[in-house]
């Protein structure tokens, strides 16, 4: 029935495609993660992205692509975000609090899905910066361990504090009693983690491209060099990173695949850069 006084928000969604924020965590001045309610009808494949946002000043939705960082079995959705100081969306999004609403268009898409890769022994997840987000989903999905003997996460950031979100997640998974029950006591050997920094001293350093071409990562993890028979990979970072890693993987004989034509690796941009 129509009412003349504004209805108080009784926790009911008021925006189109609204979801409610259930948790927010700030990792650095430039990075935060948050969780929102999941529309009951939303099905997605781990690694996919959706459009999310807020109402802009003009009253129209201001939406951006975001990888879903939570696995497909989770009741809620998690996102991991940059804070761009003058970014149209993230200058506002960084201030969300529990109980606030965001807009979420429930149409997941993306190339970083297991179905776009051929079966193999090892799955390499190669990311810089917020490119870890789709892999935060995939590394929590049991399907990754059903399909591959080992999942290897290489994450590179400029400084060590930017690695914290991924580091904490991997640590939790490697110590997860449920995963140990499902996959055996040595589950930690099935999820390998190779974090590096490039502009701050840390135990491991260097660009992903350099650590692959020099063979350092294979030596450090006691793995054979990548080969097209056994190794599969997903790439997610800046355009320059994606282009360079793609060339390195092709050098090992791996070919780019797609949903319609599964092959040895797939690529997706973590963001659209200036002038692109
Ligand atoms: P924008 O106007 O969109 O961006 C301003 C500038 O900031 C860009 O030109 C670029 O130089 C820089 N920038 C934007 N995003 C990033 C980033 N993530 N890392 C480093 N620099 C960036 N962003 C996330 O934070 N998390 C995600 O999971 C995520 N998933 C994405 C998936 C896809 C397929 C694509 C295409 C983009 C994704 N993005 C993600 C980027 C996101 O869509 C927005 O660009 C970002 O939220 C900034 O929005 P904005 O309106 O504040 O600034
Ligand atoms: P570097 O510090 O040597 O540039 P950015 O913030 O510029 O997107 O970079 C995030 C991380 O990705 C940094 O550690 C950076 O290393 C690395 N990186 C940037 N571009 C490339 C590239 N083309 N190939 C490999 N690593 C890259």
UniProtKB/TrEMBL annotation:
Cofactor(s) needed for function? FAD
Feature: compositional bias, Low complexity: 1-8
- What InterPro entries does its record include? Cbr1-like_FAD-bd_dom, FAD-bd_FR_type, FNR_bac, FNR_nucleotide-bd, FNR_type-1, OxRdtase_FAD/NAD-bd, Riboflavin_synthase-like_b-brl
**What Pfam families is this protein classified in?**
FAD_binding_6, NAD_binding_1
Record key words, sorted: FAD, Flavoprotein, NADP, Nucleotide-binding, Oxidoreductase
Q: What reaction does this catalyse?
A: 2 reduced [2Fe-2S]-[ferredoxin] + NADP(+) + H(+) = 2 oxidized [2Fe-2S]-[ferredoxin] + NADPH
A molecular-function term among this protein's GO annotations: nucleotide binding
Superkingdom assignment: Bacteria
Question: Single Gene Ontology BP term?
Answer: cellular response to oxidative stress
Q: Which residues form the FAD-binding FR-type domain?
A: 14-115
The EC number of this protein is 1.18.1.2
In terms of PANTHER family, this protein maps to: FLAVODOXIN_FERREDOXIN--NADP REDUCTASE, OXIDOREDUCTASE FAD/NAD(P)-BINDING DOMAIN PROTEIN
Q: Which family does it belong to?
A: Belongs to the ferredoxin--NADP reductase type 1 family.
According to UniProt, the name of this protein is ferredoxin--NADP(+) reductase
Q: What is the lineage of its organism?
A: Bacteria, Pseudomonadati, Pseudomonadota, Alphaproteobacteria, Rhodobacterales
């Amino acid at each position: 029935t129509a009412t003349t006084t504004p209805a108080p928000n009784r926790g009911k969604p008021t925006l189109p495609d609204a979801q409610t924020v259930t948790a927010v965590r700030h990792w650095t001045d430039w990075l935060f993660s948050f969780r929102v309610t999941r529309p009951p009808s939303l099905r997605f494949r781990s690694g996919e992205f959706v459009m999310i946002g807020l109402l802009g000043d003009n009253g129209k939705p201001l939406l951006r692509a975001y990888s879903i960082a939570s696995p497909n079995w989770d009741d809620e959705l998690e996102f991991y975000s940059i804070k761009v100081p003058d970014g149209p969306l993230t200058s506002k999004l960084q201030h969300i609090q529990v109980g606030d609403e965001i807009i979420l268009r429930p149409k997941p898409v993306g190339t970083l899905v297991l179905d776009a890769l051929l079966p193999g022994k090892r799955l390499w997840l190669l990311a810089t910066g917020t490119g870890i987000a789709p892999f935060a989903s995939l590394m929590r999905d049991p399907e990754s361990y059903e399909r591959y003997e080992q999942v290897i996460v290489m994450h590179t950031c400029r400084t060590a504090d930017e690695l914290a979100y991924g580091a904490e997640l991997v640590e939790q998974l490697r110590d997860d009693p449920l995963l140990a029950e499902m996959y055996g006591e040595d589950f930690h050997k099935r999820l390998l983690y190779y974090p590096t920094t490039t502009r701050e001293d840390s135990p491991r350093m260097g660009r992903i491209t350099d650590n692959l071409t020099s063979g350092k990562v294979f030596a450090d993890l006691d793995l054979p060099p990548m080969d097209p028979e056994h190794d599969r990979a997903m790439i997610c970072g800046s355009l320059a990173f994606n282009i360079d890693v793609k060339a390195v993987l092709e050098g090992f004989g791996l070919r780019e695949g797609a949903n319609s034509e599964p092959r040895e690796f797939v690529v997706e941009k973590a963001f659209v850069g200036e002038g692109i």
